[in-house]
Amino acid sequence: MNVQRAQEIASSPIMANVLCDGLPIYIQHVNEQSETARIYALNKPEEEREVPLYTLTERDQTLE
Predict the structure, then answer these.
(1) Cα separation of 32 and 8, whole Å?
(2) Is the pTM above the cut of 0.90?
(3) CA atoms within 13 A on the CB side of 54
(4) How many angstroms separate the CA atoms of 20 and 8, rounded?
(5) What is the tally of helices (H) and strands (E) in the chain?
(6) 64 pLDDT above the threshold of 90
């Protein structure tokens, strides 16, 4: 995922369908300089972590 799209998702009030390692996640913050994102899995909001943006994928919700 690119920096711009990750920032759009993080700032949007609409929940996007984003995955990291196959798990649905929420993007809290995007670090443009290091191209990383602060995320947590939707089923484990207490486990925050920072991951490279390239590990994030957005699923097209119209296909579901």
Answers:
(1) 12
(2) no
(3) 1
(4) 17
(5) 1, 5
(6) no
